[in-house]
Amino acid sequence: MVRGDATLRRPDPSAPEKAWTDFVFLRKNPMGRHKEFWHHQSGCRRWLIVDRDTVTHAVFGVEDAATVVAAERAGEEA
Ligand SMILES: [Zn+2]
């Protein structure tokens, strides 16, 4: 099940109101290659990031979302 844009990142808590409004309400609807969150709800129940073409439905890659987020957080701390 598709759960939305996987390229968005939560703003800093002290970010201006506009940054939060954009994060919460604004979404792109791209044609072509895009990274999306998918929830494997009926299977292993993991959150995945699927690199997919929204026009052809070709899938270019899948990553475990928890691994990606952990790597990003490790990068932030470095
Ligand atoms: Zn699964």
Main sheet properties: 4 strands, antiparallel
Order of helices and strands: EHEEEH
Shape: globular
Oligomeric assembly = single chain
CATH class wording: Alpha Beta
State the helix count. 2
CATH architectural designation: 2-Layer Sandwich
Unreliable residue stretches: none
Class from secondary-structure proportions: alpha+beta
**β content, as a range?**
25-35%
What is the average of the pLDDT values? 91
CATH superfamily: Folate-binding superfamily
Bound molecules: zinc ion
If you had to describe this structure to a student in words, what would you say it looks like?
The protein is α+β, with helices and mostly antiparallel strands and 78 residues long. The chain has one domain (2-8, 15-77): 2-Layer Sandwich (Folate-binding fold), CATH 3.30.2270.10. The chain contains two helices and four strands; from the N terminus they run βαβββα. It has helices at residues 17-25, 65-77; strands at residues 2-5, 33-39, 47-53, 59-64. A four-stranded antiparallel sheet has the order 1-2-3-4. Strand 2 (33-39) and strand 3 (47-53) form a beta hairpin. The radius of gyration is 14 Å and the shape is globular. The termini are far apart. Zinc ion binds next to loops.
Descriptive labels:
four-stranded antiparallel sheet; alpha+beta; Folate-binding fold; binds zinc ion; 4 strands
